[in-house]
Amino acid sequence: KVIYLKDYQVPDYLIDETNLTFELYEDHTLVHAQLVMRRNPEAGAGLPPLVLDGQQLELLSLSMDDRELGAADYQVDDSHLSLQPVAPTFTLDSTVRIHPETNTALEGLYKSGKMFCTQCEAEGFRKITYYLDRPDVMSAFTTTVSAEQHRYPVLLSNGNPVASGSEEGGRHWATWEDPFKKPAYLFALVAGDLWCVEDSFTTMSQREVALRIYVEPENIDKVQHAMDSLKKSMRWDEEVYGREYDLDIFMIVAVNDFNMGAMENKGLNIFNSSCVLAKAETATDAAHQRVEAVVAHEYFHNWSGNRVTCRDWFQLSLKEGFTVFRDAEFSADMNSRTVKRIEDVAFLRTNQFAEDAGPMAHPVRPDSFIEISNFYTLTVYEKGSEVVRMIHTLLGAEGFRKGTDLYFERHDGQAVTCDDFVKAMEDANGIDLSQFKRWYSQAGTPRLSVEEAFDAAAQTYSLTFRQSCPATPGQAEKQPFVIPVELGLLDAAGRDLPLRLAGEAEAQGGNRVLSVTEAEQTFTFVGIAEKPLPSLLRGFSAPVKLNFPYSRDQLMFLMQHDSDGFNRWEAGQQLSVQVLQELVGQYQRGEALVLDQRLVDAFRTLLEDATLDQAMVAEMLSLPSEAYLTEISDVADVDAIHAAREFARQSIGQALFQPLLARYQANRAISRDTAYKAEADHIARRTLQNIALSYLMQSGRGEVLDACLEQFDACDNMTERLSALAVLVNSGFEREKADALARFAEYFKDDPLVMDQWFSVQAGCGLPGGLERVKALMEHPAFTLKNPNKVRALIGAFANQNLVNFHRADGEGYRFLADHVITLNAFNPQIASRQLAPLTRWRKYDAGRQQLMKAELERILASGELSSDVFEVVSKSLA
Ligand code: ARG
Ligand code: ZN
């Protein structure tokens, strides 16, 4: 069934108070719900039927205002309970039986290992009790949890703890009260044998907040990094947005079985353990940074999501796009701003652009969906964040802050829309963003091509911008977007020229933002004596595909001189893309591959310049991924792309062996003598060290093998150890590889998060035989399809990061993925649907592969009863 945004109607009834009691047992759970309800005054006259959401619930009793209802008083089907109220206000009491102990979908109340936990966003609360499970119904919750004392000593829910006690039969109970009205998707409950690390935070108005992070006892040594991140997040939100935390306690709980990263439940965030646990010995630098970012993201939701929430699920980006923007800026402030931007843009262009080009393409604010879980997408999150970033760019930091102040003040305690967000920005700044709002309603990645014209006599330099946007499902024609283009013009010495547009009295600095609003638009700069080199879309100021005919020499010039760090990297990427595409052509024509020496020279310059930021050098030495090269191809030639990129890596490793070795040895020496810290300069050092090692290993020389083994054995942290392992796994040193893999697994076999990394490193290995290796790993005792992290680590890493093996020409990779999607569909629809993404990209491949991919999608469609999650993705992909 398709749900449309245009059909939105306010709820017929409201729930002022929600009083819940959970009795947790090993073979079932009883949920008693008391709902204090009334007719919604905004919904018109009369008393329409009350239709509550509810799925997989066994109704044991129901009463209205203390009158017990019988079978004749209500109707129940597999997703609703309907009854006829007789007064505009009433109290509804229900008791249902549910089965968290067999809930494998990990939605609603379920068990992860020995603990009970919940995941209610978006529509999981209806699997807990009959309710108006929609975000515009906000209620004050009181929750009592009762469970066996010795299995579940810790009982948690949202808000503040208000009472607790023991019962007979070895049971105990606790009551929690959340004073802030909230939608049901923010409800949470946890019961388990958990330990916690406790700390406190003093808010800007001097209130003391207790901070607690709960984990299973064996993980208690891995929470300090998350706690530090939390305190930094709380301070940052006060300083940058003026937002203060509002309850007396803030809790995070780590669970091993979780469908996504984490969830911002009011006062009780529940996290995938992969996004909380981190210590040097078991988590990489990237994992430490992810923990910091996700802790911040969920904390920031307390204002952008909880205090101000979404009216309906079409508005998801209202909270997610904004909160991703907030966490990205936080990470930029805590670490290297330019590196963070580079990582985010590379991710967006590789993955979100692919989504925009595929059958599931949708606007940041979708118009319709079958299953909302399918719309927790890169478009809603990452492109949504870019849309908020563009508003920030257009308004400036101060104007943006005025806008958010007004937004939070105006809408505190409300469930609102993306339009309300933009309206606050407009009202606070006295501007009109109506054309800008097309970013919310039009899907697809805009193309922006730029043409230059220099008039030496008139000393003018003009840039003509032409924008267009390809058709996407349901949207054939697009109107022009507002595209903020940050730019500079470089003179022959590489300096930014003062920028003065025709008609302006004076120049406005050397870096400025132009708003391109028309399909075709020309901007003319005056007072330009010599033809400059434009640096366009600095900082990636808009999520578009830019096209300007740069020569390789111009790109090398920008790489060295652009005052914008992001565009220095971007120039290097474009140069690499040109060089790699040339190699792809050579491979396809059966010619010998010849690498453009200029790329080697550019890399040499980077390696030999000791004054450069090491993090930037590492980023710039990283060739565009096979996935990105696929995304920018019309028809991707998997084998040619793989061969071209591997050839380039080998040639670079050989040509630059000495400077790479020098960098490697210098950095490894420091790593050896310095205790691990997950801080920017340490991370930069290790990143460059490890990328150097991976290039060096291309040589196959014994001295590099020795260095790699030394690092693997002697390092004190997972970043160096896992990098050394990855380098070995991708090498031809079979004996050393097998030995390292075995020793690693033996040492870490009891740490599931480390084993996930062990699986991923092998799943991503592009050497021949990848599918067979992955199939063998699925038999490993540490693997299980029941744990989403394991599925992502092995199946997900294989299908998304091992393109040459996944896309093998006989289609066995596709068959493998489809088999597991069919299996997963039966017990975890959300995970099944997520794993499908690589098959939906069939349009990018040659006719033979297209057929094989579509055949697997059709096989899934015909495989039996499909969840709405899998059905939606498969049917839209075949449409
Ligand atoms: N709100 C959570 C977050 O972004 C994610 C919830 C995802 N829910 C889902 N059904 N996929 O922080
Ligand atoms: Zn979020």
TrEMBL record:
The chemistry this enzyme catalyses reads: Release of an N-terminal amino acid, Xaa-|-Yaa- from a peptide, amide or arylamide. Xaa is preferably Ala, but may be most amino acids including Pro (slow action). When a terminal hydrophobic residue is followed by a prolyl residue, the two may be released as an intact Xaa-Pro dipeptide
All copies of domain Peptidase M1 membrane alanine aminopeptidase, residue ranges: 226-439
Class of the enzyme per the UniProt entry, highest EC level: hydrolase
Q: Which residues form the Peptidase M1 alanyl aminopeptidase Ig-like fold domain?
A: 444-548
Write down what this protein is called.
Answer: Aminopeptidase N
What cofactor(s) does the depicted protein rely on? Zn(2+)
List residues of the Aminopeptidase N-like N-terminal domain.
94-186
UniProt GO BP:
proteolysis
Does the keyword section mention Chloroplast?
A: no
Indicate the family of this protein.
Answer: Belongs to the peptidase M1 family.
Q: Which domain of life is it from?
A: Bacteria
Q: What does this protein do?
A: Aminopeptidase N is involved in the degradation of intracellular peptides generated by protein breakdown during normal growth as well as in response to nutrient starvation.
| Keywords attached to this entry | Aminopeptidase, Hydrolase, Metal-binding, Metalloprotease, Protease, Zinc
Q: Which residues form the Peptidase M1 alanyl aminopeptidase C-terminal domain?
A: 553-879
Q: What CDD domains does this protein map onto?
A: M1_APN
Q: Any idea of its EC number?
A: 3.4.11.2
- Gene Ontology MF term list: alanyl aminopeptidase activity; metallopeptidase activity; zinc ion binding
Matches recorded under SUPFAM superfamilies: Leukotriene A4 hydrolase N-terminal domain, Metalloproteases ('zincins'), catalytic domain
